[in-house]
Specification:
It holds the Pfam family Cofac_haem_bdg. Helices cover 42% and strands 16% of the residues. By secondary structure, it is α/β, with parallel strands linked by helices. The strands form 2 sheets. It has an 8-stranded mixed sheet, with helices on both faces. A two-stranded antiparallel sheet has the order 6-7.
């Protein structure tokens, strides 16, 4: 039976930088170094994150270095770069461009310097491959608007770099996605056309990341992959994880998932988070973005308008 008591050596995260690693079954606390030793022979280590959370990113960096000490042949695979920008990322890793040039040319995320710079710099200093693992953003957006047939319009050079089966699926993931977008979007076991296209866009991301991880293993045999992704793509063994296992059943994969430790509790909420990953790391919740629901709606509307400014013709 899983432990429901808080281990004596596990304390509440004190700052947003803190993360407490836990083995869900036993409730035992682990340091990044102890976790790395446990994962030394694992083919693919997937660390889910809450995008922009300092605790997630510091934990990723500490685990990256700890894993490297166990297995120096390491690949850093990142959702945060799209595969069509791999050449620009490679030029930076080779020292041919500066950081600002890379950020602009490779369309790095806005929080690159604060969140991902330490990971990429460690890989660059150690001469390790960094894989731009995500599907092209414009393609994902247009599949979400127009449906899977949009892939017929994608330039052949890009289409060839994407998975041959871009919409592989699992029933549990479909159910999780439907729950996430709200029951109002569901009609019994099906989703309406708009939400179905949105789901296909999500699958395109997951299938692309799974395929890119496998390609990197084929290109760099004997290497361990450290893949960074938003937790929805990996927790509960779904999304990218399930598709990776479908494509390569013999591959060993470990998932490290984040969970929030409520500010009012002295014990980590293991019971409701136990299934999220092979290992968990507890972090402080982030501050609420909005208290005013009207301002939140306006902000979401503005974000949506920005995302729809480009056409898919």
């Amino acid at each position: 039976m899983p432990s429901t008591s808080s281990p004596k050596n596990l304390t509440m995260p004190q700052t947003l930088y803190d993360a407490r690693i836990v083995e869900p079954e036993s409730g035992a606390a682990l340091t990044p170094e102890q976790l790395a030793r446990r994962l030394a022979e694992t083919d693919v280590v997937i660390v889910g994150e809450y995008h922009g959370h300092q605790g997630s990113h510091l934990l990723q960096s500490r685990l990256q270095t700890a894993l490297h000490r166990q297995q120096p042949r390491q690949i850093l695979s990142m959702e945060q770069f799209n595969l069509d920008h791999q050449p620009e990322l490679d030029r930076y890793l080779k020292g041919e461009t500066g950081e600002t040039e890379m950020i602009e040319d490779a369309a790095a995320w806005d929080n690159y310097r604060a969140s991902y710079r330490p990971l990429v710099e460690f890989a660059r200093q150690k001469n390790l491959p960094v894989i731009a693992a995500n599907a092209p953003a414009d393609v994902v957006r247009c599949v979400g608007r127009k449906g899977p047939s949009y892939l017929d319009k994608v330039p052949e050079s890009i289409r060839q770099a994407m998975p041959s089966e871009p919409f592989m699926d699992t029933p549990a993931y479909r159910e999780k996605f439907a729950d996430a977008i709200g029951a109002s979007h569901r009609d019994e076991s099906t989703m309406n056309d708009r939400m179905e296209n949105t789901y296909k866009a999500q699958l395109l991301r997951d299938n692309t990341m799974a395929a890119r991880v496998l390609e990197s293993i084929g290109r760099y045999p004997g290497h361990q992959v450290l893949h960074l992704t938003g937790t929805f793509h990996s927790e509960d063994g779904l999304g990218t994880v399930a598709l990776l296992k479908q494509r390569a059943p013999k591959l060993s994969v470990a998932v490290i998932s984040p969970a929030f430790w409520p500010a009012t509790d002295t014990r980590p909420p293991l019971d409701q988070n136990q299934s999220k990953g092979d290992f968990l790391y507890f972090i402080q919740p982030l501050p609420d973005e909005f208290k005013d629901s009207g301002r939140e709606r306006e902000a979401m509307k503005a974000r949506f308008q920005r995302s729809t400014s480009k056409t898919c013709d």
